[in-house]
């Protein structure tokens, strides 16, 4: 019963992670579908999975996802960046099963779609918490040809941090885990260290910018 109560708190804790100061920025919403909304192909396409309980398909504007997108846009130019969030249930059961199955298939399909319609775009896979699980599972669903189109993989608070990402070379992968984050250690207990990856958004963007340069 105690473990169940801890799990029930997962969604509420992740959805109320520490906020960064609000500043004007391009990615100020919680939902982005720039692979499917008619946005022209751009030099870089980030396909992103939000964490359990986070809103929209990328998390609220103060979550790590949108902060990372804006930091990346400031480095490579907003006209060069497209963001596609993954719409999936983002519930506790998905986390317990190692990442939502439909969400994982959706991410893999978005990679295939991006590779087909934007042959010159550099594809970046990214996710936070359960979204990181989805990155791992989606990579395993890709054909090798589509996996070869992935330029970089970036995860935050990754429950599978000790695992490789299938079909993606290790030098294309960056896993950001905080010391004391028990989710990153493969556990189910949320600690404060799992809720403040916003502070890593700029460093993460710098790494991705170097990979897509």
From TrEMBL:
<feature type="active site">
    <location>
        <position position="181"/>
    </location>
</feature>
<feature type="active site" description="Proton donor/acceptor">
    <location>
        <position position="194"/>
    </location>
</feature>
<keyword id="KW-1015">Disulfide bond</keyword>
<comment type="function">
    <text>Catalyzes the hydrolysis of complex carboxylic polyesters found in the cell wall of plants. Degrades cutin, a macromolecule that forms the structure of the plant cuticle.</text>
</comment>
<dbReference type="GO" id="GO:0005576">
    <property type="term" value="C:extracellular region"/>
</dbReference>
<feature type="active site" description="Nucleophile">
    <location>
        <position position="129"/>
    </location>
</feature>
<dbReference type="InterPro" id="IPR011150">
    <property type="entry name" value="Cutinase_monf"/>
</dbReference>
<protein>
    <recommendedName>
        <fullName>Cutinase</fullName>
        <ecNumber>3.1.1.74</ecNumber>
    </recommendedName>
</protein>
<dbReference type="GO" id="GO:0016052">
    <property type="term" value="P:carbohydrate catabolic process"/>
</dbReference>
<dbReference type="InterPro" id="IPR029058">
    <property type="entry name" value="AB_hydrolase_fold"/>
</dbReference>
<keyword id="KW-0732">Signal</keyword>
<feature type="signal peptide">
    <location>
        <begin position="1"/>
        <end position="19"/>
    </location>
</feature>
<keyword id="KW-0378">Hydrolase</keyword>
<dbReference type="Pfam" id="PF01083">
    <property type="entry name" value="Cutinase"/>
</dbReference>
<feature type="disulfide bond">
    <location>
        <begin position="177"/>
        <end position="184"/>
    </location>
</feature>
<comment type="similarity">
    <text>Belongs to the cutinase family.</text>
</comment>
<keyword id="KW-0964">Secreted</keyword>
<feature type="disulfide bond">
    <location>
        <begin position="41"/>
        <end position="118"/>
    </location>
</feature>
<keyword id="KW-0719">Serine esterase</keyword>
<dbReference type="InterPro" id="IPR043580">
    <property type="entry name" value="CUTINASE_1"/>
</dbReference>
<dbReference type="InterPro" id="IPR043579">
    <property type="entry name" value="CUTINASE_2"/>
</dbReference>
<dbReference type="InterPro" id="IPR000675">
    <property type="entry name" value="Cutinase/axe"/>
</dbReference>
<dbReference type="GO" id="GO:0050525">
    <property type="term" value="F:cutinase activity"/>
</dbReference>
């Amino acid at each position: 019963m105690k473990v169940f109560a801890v799990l029930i708190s997962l969604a509420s804790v992740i959805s109320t992670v520490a906020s960064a100061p609000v500043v004007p920025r391009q990615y100020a919403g919680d939902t982005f579908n720039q692979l499917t909304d008619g946005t022209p192909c751009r030099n870089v396409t980030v396909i992103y999975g939000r964490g359990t309980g986070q809103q929209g398909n990328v998390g609220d504007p103060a979550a790590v996802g949108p902060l990372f997108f804006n930091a990346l846009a400031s480095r490579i130019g907003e006209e060069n960046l497209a963001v596609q969030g993954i719409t999936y249930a983002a519930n506790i059961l998905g986390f317990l099963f190692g990442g939502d199955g439909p969400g994982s298939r959706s991410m893999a399909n978005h990679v295939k779609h991006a590779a087909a319609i934007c042959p010159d775009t550099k594809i970046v896979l990214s996710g936070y918490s359960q979204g990181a699980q989805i990155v791992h599972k989606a990579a395993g669903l890709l054909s090798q040809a589509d996996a070869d189109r992935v330029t970089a993989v970036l995860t935050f608070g990754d429950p599978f941090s000790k695992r490789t990402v299938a079909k993606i070379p290790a030098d294309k992968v960056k896993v950001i885990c905080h010391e004391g984050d028990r989710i990153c250690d493969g556990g189910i207990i949320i600690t404060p260290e799992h809720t403040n990856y916003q502070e890593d958004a700029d460093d993460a963007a710098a790494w991705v910018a170097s990979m897509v340069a």
